[in-house]
Specification:
The protein is an alpha+beta fold. Among the domains are: about 90 residues, Beta Barrel (Thrombin, subunit H); about 100 residues, Thrombin, subunit H. The protein is built from 4 helices and 13 strands. The strands form 2 sheets. A 6-stranded antiparallel β-barrel has the order 1-2-3-6-5-4.
């Protein structure tokens, strides 16, 4: 008998082997997908994060190169003239505000006897002309409780002012003086004003009208505690003192980007806050 002549192959077993191949393939495919999903879970976020950081680093690099190139081309004389032009542009639109408060009762001694004396009290602040027919924007707390309000214009005229409206939430107020052909300030876009941009404050600190100080925009969307109900302020390091309240904060184009409203402490400490011009404009236009 030839070798292998008696070998017998079971046709049922042979068919079963062929049927198991698709099952093995499915299990292998599922295992492969599980491994890929597991790898994606751990590696894809890292890849996305690295791409995002690379994009951000590219933006920072572009800003750095642009800034470095710009600084090499800056002339101090040109910069000084720019500061002076900003002052010349804004000055005619800034006003000094005096508010006469109700008289306070005090006692004085005359020949050994106490005599009552009513002493008038005067508060001071700043404001900015926003329309050529005499509308002035300032802080509500500057004129709050005043019996008489006087506005001194850039040309020296001292005029009586009427309160048109106030907004307690933003601490803003609109006044009206009887004057025409004034020089209103140009509205700026506070949303587009970037942190680090140069800004100027013009006002009457301690009654010294038309005082100009310079600084940078230090931050935006600051939450100031114990202030008005409106909390979203712009922060700058411009020297702002009592009397600057209600005066303008302007950008390098001389455009209004904020209304100086609050400071940290009783006097200048390098941290002051202003109501954004976009908010002030909405309040004025109501």
């Amino acid at each position: 008998m030839p070798l292998g002549a008696g070998k017998h192959v079971d046709p049922v077993t042979e068919r079963s082997g062929f049927q198991q191949d698709p099952l093995r393939q499915s299990l292998f495919l599922l295992a492969t997908m599980a491994v890929l999903l597991l790898a994606a879970r751990y590696f894809v976020p890292r890849i996305v994060e690295e791409i995002r950081y690379s994009w951000h680093r590219g933006e920072l690099r572009a800003e750095y190169e642009s800034g470095s190139e710009g600084l090499r081309n800056v002339s101090l004389d040109t910069l000084s003239r720019a500061y002076q032009m900003v002052t010349s542009t804004v000055g005619p639109s800034v006003v000094h505000i005096e508010v006469e408060q109700p008289s306070a009762l005090t006692d004085i001694k005359i020949r050994g006897q106490l005599m009552p004396l009513y002493q008038p009290q005067t508060d001071q602040g700043s404001g900015v002309i926003v329309a050529d027919n005499g509308y002035v924007l300032t802080n509500r707390h500057v004129i709050d409780g005043g019996e008489e309000i006087y506005v001194t214009l850039g040309d020296g005229r001292r005029l009586s002012a009427a309160i048109i409206g106030t907004d307690q939430q933003t601490d803003l107020a609109v006044l009206k003086v009887d004057a025409d052909e004034l020089i209103p300030i140009e509205w700026g876009d506070s949303d587009r004003c970037r942190v680090g941009s140069p800004v100027w404050a013009v006002g009457s600190p301690f009654g010294l009208d038309q005082t100009v100080t310079f600084g940078i925009l230090s931050g935006k969307h600051r939450m100031v505690e114990d202030s008005t109900h409106y909390q979203d302020f712009m922060q700058s390091d411009v020297a702002v003192n009592p009397g600057n309240s209600g005066g303008p904060l302007v950008d390098a184009r001389g455009s209004l980007v904020g209304i100086n409203t609050a400071i940290v402490g009783e006097s200048y400490q390098g941290v002051s806050f202003a109501v954004p011009s976009n908010v002030a404009k909405q309040v004025y236009e109501r």
